[in-house]
Design brief:
four-stranded antiparallel beta sheet, about 0% helix, globular
């Protein structure tokens, strides 16, 4: 939307695909993640990115830029692609992820990477991947992640919330109608309340 006018960009304008899952704001425009790749939108111009790696960037569900400038792209069915200093690598079930279906990615203040996934959560700590699934969580489909001001994590799931203190999970059921809606996005307010 620009000056109350809707501007539409499609494959005809250079998008890899019209099915867009995620947009990430950057200094040089916006990254757009779709079913077939990643584009940059800058000044009204669409550019196809990472064409040498196009077979890796499929079904991009989310993108996250870490403190060191690495771009993590979570996908539906292909794990994650990590782009660092122009070189792409993959993280998948083959090398430690719980599943290859990633709903959300987050980096904590210690540089650990959290993957909210279909079936649980994976945490990449230097040199080691830790996985947490339904054996430890009551509601293991993790759609959103939020690090609270006290350092704990709140995981938004299909029918409730899970609080994770670094060792254990504590289920927080959602009331009534919210139970069927899920917690797909969260933010902590200045007073410590959480907006779902």
């Amino acid at each position: 939307v620009h000056d109350d006018e809707i501007v539409i960009y499609t494959e005809e304008h250079g998008l890899w695909n019209n099915f867009i899952h995620t947009v990430l704001k950057k200094e040089d425009g916006f990254l757009i993640g779709s079913k077939k790749g990643i584009n940059r939108l800058q000044g009204g111009i669409i550019e196809k990115l990472y064409q040498n790696y196009s077979s890796l960037f499929l079904d991009i569900m989310n993108m996250y830029e870490t403190a060191d400038g690495s771009l993590y792209c979570g996908s539906w069915g292909y794990g994650a692609v990590v782009l660092k200093n122009g070189i792409a690598s993959t993280i998948s079930k083959k090398n430690g992820l719980l599943t290859d279906h990633i709903f959300t990615i987050f980096e904590d203040k210690h540089g650990q990477i959290y993957f909210g996934q279909d079936g649980g959560m994976s945490i990449y700590r230097p040199g080691v991947m830790h996985v947490y699934d339904e054996r430890l969580m009551q509601d293991p489909d993790v759609w959103s992640l939020l690090q609270l001001s006290n350092g704990d994590f709140l995981l938004g799931a299909t029918s409730g919330l899970e609080r994770f203190d670094g060792d254990r999970f504590y289920n927080i059921p959602l009331p009534g109608e919210l139970k069927r809606s899920g917690a797909y996005s969260m933010a902590e307010l200045e007073n410590g309340d959480v907006l779902i």
